[in-house]
Design goal:
This is Nuclear transport factor 2 family protein. InterPro entries: NTF2-like_dom_sf, SnoaL-like. The chain has 125 residues and is an alpha+beta fold. The protein has three helices and six strands, in the order H-E-E-H-E-E-E-E-H. The chain has helices spanning 2-20, 48-59, 117-122, and strands at 28-35, 45-46, 62-73, 76-86, 92-104, 107-114.
């Protein structure tokens, strides 16, 4: 149970900051592994700074986000995040993103996410 509490606390810290677009980075491990955004390329992006740069760009596309559901089991978690997206073409979409996390050494160590990349990318044009 202790491991699950640590995982939940890290995620709560992350998502509170993520929704505010500030102060979420402290929960991320230096050797963080990220897979998402392009499901045809499942090679992870490695490193905290690389992930920070991805999120800087991604944060420009959402006005608000909420955690819809969080399931925590020891050092793993599944989260459904609900986002209000706003695109450069003026289109606004509400969508869910499935986010799968792992924790290692007291930090969030990896994230794999799944979402409707076709709709997302077509609205960036």
């Amino acid at each position: 149970m202790e491991k699950s509490q640590e995982t939940r606390q890290l995620l709560e810290t992350y998502y509170q900051g993520f929704a505010e677009k500030a102060n979420w980075e402290s929960a991320i491990a230096d050797d963080f592994q990220y897979i998402g955004g392009d499901m045809t390329n499942i090679a992870p992006v490695t490193g905290k700074q690389a992930y920070v740069e991805i999120i800087k760009r991604f944060s420009q596309r959402f006005e608000a986000m909420r955690v819809q559901r969080m399931i925590v089991e020891d050092d793993r978690a599944a989260v459904i995040g609900n986002y209000d997206f706003v695109f450069p073409n003026g289109v606004k979409i509400n969508g869910n993103v499935a986010e799968f996390w792992t924790v290692s050494n007291g930090k969030l160590s990896s994230l794999t996410l799944y979402f409707d990349t076709l709709t997302f990318m077509s609205n960036l044009k």
